[in-house]
Amino acid sequence: MKIAVDLLGGDFAPKKVIAGIRLAIDRGFIKSEELVAIGDEEAFKSFAWRWLVRRHPIETILGAKLDPQNLRNKASSIAIGVAQVKAGVFNAFMSAGNTAVVTMMAVALLGRIKERVKPAIGVPLPDSPNCLLLDIGAIVDCTVDDFFNLALMGSTYANLFWGVRDPLVALLNIGVESHKGPPVLVETHKQFTLGRHRPDGLPFTFGGNVEADKIFSPGLQANVVVCDGFVGNMVLKEYEVLKKRSNQANWQDIGALPLLGVNGNVLIAHGKSKAKAIANAIKAAKTAAIVNVNQQLAKLLAEPAPALSSV
After folding, report:
1. How far apart are CA 256 and CA 97, in angstroms?
2. Which domains does the chain have, with CATH numbers?
């Protein structure tokens, strides 16, 4: 197994990324021989890196810092990482670099698991055990089909990462009543309730609508909360602000999130990640490589699902 780490991504790269690699090895999250570091000459010549490799056999690949004016640079650390996942050299690639760029590279180089399936990003809700909120920024104009695919992605994640056998999916809405919300959510609620989005029924249990004030409650029963990326991103950012005020930062424990819906394991860490977050991101990347969530999603989506609504 080979897990690749981008030394050049994030606000505190490469120093804190290198520290995170060391911490991940020290805590037994990964073996040093399972790691590949992608960085530039400056990073590899730093004291922190030289100290680390004297003690641990870590493979390296010379890459380049991403130039915002040249996103197609095949020598950038992100492009190398994603390309080598496609080639089967790496089992997973993790970066704390720009989310939009990592997503763009993954979609361009790896492709989608299915043509009409839009890649998405989900985040576990810290106050609600085993619950994933998605999408948080990748899909901003969802159709009923998009909401179905998000529910499928989230329920597959809950099953593979947390062992939840029958994931419960809820729609984030302005009220619990089925007639509340914009037309697309009303129609999605209807189709999910009928269980007719696929010929063989829904591969998850639908729990109805849930309001925003309930999703950060320890009493939340859902394993997956589905919303479009515009709403999800605002909810997540407001939550981070509230957590800062209460001095609790759980995103560091999550580490990194898999990009769902592409043909390979690409994980995105927070741009402000330091050693602890990077270590947990590496742990998440190895888990993603083991469970192969996107491969499982591809199998579930192998049979065409009818488009029941154009809302």
Report:
1. 11
2. 3-300 (3.40.718.10)
| CA distance from start to end of the chain | 43
Contacts of 70 (CB under 8 A, 6+ apart): none
pLDDT of 310 strictly over 70: no
Look at residue 248 in the predicted model and tell me its pLDDT: 45
Amino acid at 94: M
Strands (E), 73-172: 92-95, 120-124, 132-134, 168-172
Q: Which of 82-91, 152-161, 190-199, 245-254 has the lowest mean pLDDT?
A: 245-254
* Assessment of whether the complete model's pTM goes beyond 0.85: yes
Strand, helix or coil for residue 170:
strand
Tokens of 231: 């709403």
H/E element holding 268?
strand 266-269
Q: Does residue 22 have a pLDDT over 50?
A: yes
Can you tell me the distance from the alpha carbon of 105 to that of 78, in angstroms, rounded to the nearest whole number?
8
Q: In 10 A of CB 254, how many CB atoms?
A: 16
The amino acid occupying position 302 is A
Strand order in the sheet with 59-62: 59-62, 35-39, 3-6, 92-95, 266-269, 256-260, 120-124, 132-134, 224-226, 168-172, 205-210
pLDDT (0 to 100) of residue 311: 38
H or E element in which residue 208 lies: strand 205-210
> Which residues, 6+ apart, have CB-to-CB distance to 228 below 8 Å?
135, 139, 140, 141, 142, 146
Nearest residue to 310 via CA among 146, 200, 117: 146
52 and 21 in contact (C-beta within 8 Å)? yes
CA-to-CA distance for 191 and 171, rounded, in angstroms? 12
192: Cβ–Cβ under 8 A, 6 or more apart, which residues? 148, 151, 169, 171, 202, 206
Dig out the tokens for 196 from the structure. 């007719």
